[in-house]
Amino acid sequence: MDLFDKAYNFHEAEKVIELGLYPYFRVNEGAVDTTVIMNGRKTVMIGSNNYLGLTSHPEVKEAAIKAVEKYGTGCTGSRFLNGTIDLHVELEERLARFMKKEASLVFTTGFTTNLGVISTIVGKNDIVISDRTNHASILDGCRMALGKLLKFRHNDMDDLERILINIQDKKVGKLIVVDGVFSMEGDLADLKHIVPLAKKYGCRLMVDEAHSLGVLGRGGRGTCEEMGVLDKVDLVMGTFSKSFASLGGFIASEEKVVSFLKHNARTFM
């Protein structure tokens, strides 16, 4: 059997393309704003994650231009060695203050943030409990972790508590992970019930605020702030590719936890 057989036998996309119904990889011929140019035609954009419209804001573009002029187009090395610049440090300090946490750490993408954080913080003797409809990056991070993965039905607090009750070994570390806003369903994590359950059963809690930063909460800090539990959540993840109009991701937590991730998360190195 040829390893590539699965690729040679993949015809689903071709069939949809032939029918003229293929919706993916549409090419934009300029900036993605409220309207875009596709095939020379101006169309309305209704699928963008540019929630605050900041990708085309003059001040944002000017700041990016000035950064390229001063620092060039790349860091030329890993953050772990020669790739950390003063902008990284300033950004992480300001993010920590904004998220009301002790420290933060910036990754290259939101996807690699979840991969790195979950696979690093969950060890081989630990358990990670995930909502079944969490983003793929969370699920992949759980699979990469050496610990045991348990899934509960979407936003089902009874099912979550059933799983927590059945964890017999009280000495294992436990992490509950949820999306603040579930990207496919569009609903919010039931944090007002998840937070007390996490406390009751001795779990740490991680919330992915990718789709809620800049949108929910009085200060735009996401679902945790919206529900008044930001100070009760141990790990808050965010991304720059939506409201923050850029690329990258970050995690905010206690200083000791961020230091541990900084020195151990493979997707950061």
Explain this structure:
The protein folds into two domains: 5-44, no CATH class; 60-264, Type I PLP-dependent aspartate aminotransferase-like (Major domain) (Aspartate Aminotransferase, domain 2, 3-Layer(aba) Sandwich). The longest helix has 14 residues, at 58-71. Strand 1 and strand 2 (41-44) form a beta hairpin. With 269 residues, it is α/β, with parallel strands linked by helices. The model has no long low-confidence stretch (mean pLDDT 96). The protein has a seven-stranded mixed β-sheet, sandwiched between helices. It has helices at 5-8, 12-18, 58-71, 86-99, 110-121, 136-144, 157-165, 191-200, 223-226, 255-264, and strands spanning 35-38, 41-44, 103-107, 127-131, 148-152, 174-179, 204-208, 235-239, 249-253.
Features:
269 residues; alpha/beta; Aspartate Aminotransferase, domain 2; seven-stranded mixed β-sheet; two-stranded antiparallel ribbon; globular
CATH topology of the largest domain: Aspartate Aminotransferase, domain 2
Order of helices and strands: HHEEHHEHEHEHEHEHEEH
Major sheet size, sense and barrel closure: 7 strands, mixed
Helix content bin: 25-40%
Write the layout of secondary structure elements.
Elements: H1 5-8, H2 12-18, E1 35-38, E2 41-44, H3 58-71, H4 86-99, E3 103-107, H5 110-121, E4 127-131, H6 136-144, E5 148-152, H7 157-165, E6 174-179, H8 191-200, E7 204-208, H9 223-226, E8 235-239, E9 249-253, H10 255-264
Parallel strand pairs: 4-5, 4-6, 6-7, 7-8
Antiparallel strand pairs: 1-2, 3-9, 8-9
Helix pairs in contact: 5-6
